[in-house]
UniProtKB/TrEMBL annotation:
The keyword Oxidoreductase applies. This is Proline dehydrogenase. One of its GO terms (molecular function) is FAD binding. GO terms for biological process: L-proline catabolic process to L-glutamate. Converts proline to delta-1-pyrroline-5-carboxylate. It catalyses: trans-4-hydroxy-L-proline + a quinone = (3R,5S)-1-pyrroline-3-hydroxy-5-carboxylate + a quinol + H(+); L-proline + a quinone = (S)-1-pyrroline-5-carboxylate + a quinol + H(+). It comes from Chrysochloris asiatica (Cape golden mole). The keyword Zinc-finger does not apply.
């Protein structure tokens, strides 16, 4: 199979006629309407305004009081919500995805669950069971959006683990994973066995109620991935904070043992290049998957929680886990990218990667190395950007024949706006750095205006 893949890969590489640096300019905007471009420019300008992002939630509450829910809702729909969210109903999401498909882009649906670690709002199992149902509906929706059946397994969706299990439990598991004596208690093999069995799960540091929650969490994760597998949907697990990530990786490893045996990886982990230890972890995990004969799927990001990670390290008096500056994060991203592309070229469809970045240099590097390594444009490597962000990058990639996914949150205004504001706060540097996108949008709008006069 690997040999066939190599032949196909090299054919795809040469048929592309050599690597060409993509032009991330306003050219691809000809595919979009003037109204859409104007809204994008206005919203990106607004989001680059630091006080608006910092005080977003209070401003929303204030406008709600002053203008009433209808008018303030209409304003949000015409601006931030309209720019970054697919909609609330299935019909709205379908419509958004149809427009994306027309532009050569694919959907990566994300259920926006908005809870800070340790939030008091999360009590009892009901909240997690509600999220489980939302995830199962997301699988159905992702599957249903594939109007014309494409290659099986190119449907992806995102999953936030802390929507299905408590941050408290993740912190406990993280401590166990980090303690060499206790880590055997929670080996991936043991958790993989426990996912759908009724056998006793004994973890010494958990009491009976906590063990029940652990068991229920494992069962929820198992049910989502099991259902996604039957619907040919690949599940990309988000990375969160360093206080939780070792637990999330443990749970992904357990799920991978169950589900990444046939048909490529059905459960992927996310690796954040802004963490100092990421390259080493990625190398270890990729080699372990290879040794175990398991497929391996990776979402490679720079990382969204920089300020919070640093603040937490200062508070705890521990070493800052993040890279010292932007340049070192970029170097780390490039090294991880190289590692993964080499694995893909060696393991073929058993290894999948989504280059989840808006950074033009990272995207150039990925396309160049794909060509050099003979990795096909629409094979196990794809690209990901957020809906409403860096369309000039997504459109250029899509037009050139690469597989490009837009991460799409959906849901009601009440559900999604707090999530969006928090994402905007976390991605402050990206939004402020979206100046180039604003310039390109401005250029294209001026060009259209002059053409009319
Ligand atoms: C499809 C998709 C899925 C995503 N999933 C996740 C996820 O699961 N978990 C997650 O954490 N993030 C996730 N993100 C967000 C991602 O981590 C980045 O925050 C975002 O994409 C910006 O990085 P960039 O490569 O696009 O752009 P760039 O603008 O090139 O990079 C900005 C990033 O560089 C890093 N950085 C900036 N300044 C410094 C500094 N002074 N020191 C060190 N590093 C610095 C930060 O990570 C910052 O976010 C996802 C993004 C996408 C597109």
């Amino acid at each position: 199979m690997l040999q066939t893949y190599r032949v196909l890969s090299s054919q795809a590489g040469s048929s592309a006629g050599g690597w060409q640096r993509l032009r991330f300019d306003s050219g691809a905007f000809h595919l979009k309407g003037t109204g859409e471009l104007t809204r994008a420019l206005l919203v990106l300008r607004l989001c680059a305004w630091p006080s608006l992002v910092t005080h977003g939630l209070s401003l929303q509450a204030w406008s709600h009081r002053l203008l009433g829910s209808r008018l303030s809702g209409a304003l949000l729909r015409a601006s931030i919500y309209g720019q970054f969210v697919a909609g609330e109903t299935v019909a709205e999401v379908r419509n958004c995805v149809r427009q994306l498909k027309h532009l050569g882009l694919r959907p990566l649906l994300a259920v926006p669950t908005e809870e800070e670690p340790d939030s008091a709002a999360k009590t009892g199992e009901a909240w997690y069971e509600g999220n489980l149902n939302a995830m199962l509906r997301c699988v159905d929706l992702s599957r249903g959006l594939l109007e014309t059946p494409g290659p099986a397994g190119n449907i992806l969706m995102q999953l936030k683990m802390t929507a299905l299990t408590s941050t408290w439990l993740c912190k406990e598991l993280t401590s166990l994973v980090r303690d060499p004596k206790a880590s055997l208690e929670v080996s991936p093999e043991k958790l993989a066995d426990a996912m759908d069995s009724t056998q006793d799960l004994q973890i010494s540091c958990l009491n009976a109620e906590q063990t029940r929650h652990f068991r229920a969490s494992l069962s929820r994760l198992h049910r989502v991935v099991q259902y996604a597998r039957t619907q040919h949907v690949r599940v990309l697990v988000d990375a969160e904070y360093t206080s939780l990530n070792p637990a999330l990786s443990l749970l992904v490893a357990a799920l991978a043992m169950r589900w990444n045996k046939e048909g490529g990886p059905w459960v992927w982990n996310t690796y954040q290049a802004y963490l100092k230890d990421t390259h080493e972890r990625l190398r270890r995990d990729a080699e372990a998957a290879d040794r175990a004969g398991l497929a391996f799927g990776v979402k490679l990001v720079r990382g969204a929680y920089l300020d919070k990670e640093r603040k937490e390290a200062r508070l705890q008096g521990t070493e800052d886990p993040t890279q010292p500056d932007y340049e070192t994060t970029n170097q780390s991203y490039n090294r991880c990218l190289e590692l993964m592309l080499t694995h893909v070229s060696r393991r073929g469809p058993l290894c999948h990667l989504i280059v989840a970045s808006h950074n033009e240099e990272s995207v150039h590097l990925a396309t160049k190395r794909m060509w050099e390594l003979g990795i096909p444009l629409d094979g196990p490597v794809c690209f990901g950007q957020l809906l409403g962000m860096c369309d000039h990058v997504s459109l250029a990639l899509g037009q050139a024949g690469y597989a490009v996914y837009k991460s799409i949150p959906y849901g009601s205004l009440e559900e999604v706006i707090p999530y969006l504001i928090r994402r905007a706060q976390e991605n402050r540097s990206v939004l402020q750095g979206a100046r180039r996108e604003q310039e390109l949008l401005g250029q294209e709008l001026r060009r259209r205006l002059l053409r009319r006069t």
